[in-house]
Amino acid sequence: MPTAVRSHAKINLGLYIGAPRPEAGPAGFHRLATVYQTLDLYDLVTVAARPAAATTLRLTSNDNRVPTDEHNTAWKMVVLALEALGLHG
Fold first, then answer.
1. How far apart are alpha carbons 27 and 75 in whole angstroms?
2. What is the pTM of this model?
């Protein structure tokens, strides 16, 4: 059964990007400090899962500017979660 949630937009009122985190490796994640305000504007994000012989990931968008492959941040987070759970590939 699919689950849909609102992913609200935000405005950064202040953003500090620090040095790369040592545990980030080649991904290059940086330390961040931010102050932001959420808005009453949102995307609707729907997630569905079903039993399958192999783990697969499919990402779709109605905006062709949004990457729907491993370049998408949501994709990256799902891959990390699957790896942490031992459910990759």
1. 14
2. 0.57
**Residue 43 C-alpha from the chain's centroid:** 13
| H or E segment to which residue 44 belongs | strand 30-47
pLDDT in tens, 10-43: 999 999 998 887 776 666 778 889 999 999 999 9
Query: Per residue in 71-86, is it b (16+ CB within 10 Å) or e — as a string?
Result: eeebbeeeeeeeeeee
Query: What is the C-alpha to C-alpha distance for residues 67 and 74, in angstroms, rounded to an integer?
Result: 10
Q: In which element (H, E) is residue 75 found?
A: helix 73-84
The model's pLDDT over 64-88, given as tens digits with 9 standing for 90+, comes to 999 999 999 889 988 898 889 887 6
